[in-house]
Amino acid sequence: EQIFILDQLEPIYTEAKTLLHNENYSHFAFLFKLVGRIQNTIIELKKIVEENFCPKIIKSITPISVTAIDASTNYIESILNIREEFFKVVQDFFHNDEHFIAAVEKTCRNFINNNVLPESADNAGKSAELLTRYCDKLLQKGSEVDIEEKFDQIMIGFDYVKDKDVYEKFYYKMLFKRLLCGVRKYEYSEERMILRLKTICDLTYISKLQELFQGGNISKTLLDQYRLYCEKNKINDIVINILN
To answer: Average pLDDT of 210-218?
Structure first.
């Protein structure tokens, strides 16, 4: 059997590409299992998966990317949904095979960082920037009911984006703006998001975020006290935000 498979490897690899292109995962799963028993063939199969997996799903991002810069929510939720579809295929047809998972992980990373939007914008960090803008919108308007689930999704996206420094830069700027303009919906959510970032970001960066956040809280406390004083003494108050 092994000798026969070795003699037919090139036609098998060609067929594997065709099956993936047609999204015929049940037949590809059988082929993957069969050929995977032969030493060293798994490397080529993983490469084929990385280059040919879910072409129709990946293509679906093209129309969304046109408006992505102005509609970050739609773009980010779309790429995260695509990632979820990828792994549903892995679970349903490949029973979470470790080799297949590794190949799909690489596919996801390439797709998120190199889809039509970053390429058209000539900016490899565009997905990271839009992920930050998506997070910003959640923290401005989000509900406490599903915010943790949304944060889970953001962290999945953060794990894949290549230019994490872009995310960090924009997150700091947007946190500053939320604090300055007083547009935070839930203080608890801000704290939870910083806590999430604390597990994966540089300590110096997290310290800067925490200092900024604490400065915003002090400013809010002082302003609340000032407003109470103005109300008590019937003074027209002037809103001033102080951030360290």
So the answer is: 72
**For residues 180 and 133, is the Cβ–Cβ distance under 8 A?**
no
Residue 137 and residue 121: Cα distance in Å, rounded?
22
Q: What does the pLDDT look like over 123-178, one tens digit per residue? A: 667 888 899 999 998 888 766 667 888 899 999 999 999 888 899 899 989 988 88
Could you give the CA distance from residue 167 to residue 83 in angstroms, rounded to a whole number?
Answer: 19
Other CB atoms closer than 10 Å to residue 190's CB: what's the count? 19
Which two structure tokens, joined as six digits, stand for 162? 């290549």
Q: What is the DSSP letter of 38?
A: S
Domain boundaries, the chain: 1-122, 125-216
Q: 53: which DSSP letter?
A: S
Pick from 5-19, 54-68, 77-91: least confident: 54-68
CA 140 to chain centre: 19
pTM for this prediction: 0.75
Phi/psi region, residue 202 (left: phi>0; alpha: psi -120 to 50; beta: rest), is beta
Structural fold of domain 125-216: 5 helical Cullin repeat like (1.20.1310)
Pick the CATH number of 1-122 from 3.60.20.30, 1.20.1310.10, 1.20.140.10, 3.30.230.70: 1.20.1310.10
Q: Which residues contact 235 (CB under 8 A, 6 or more apart)?
A: 229
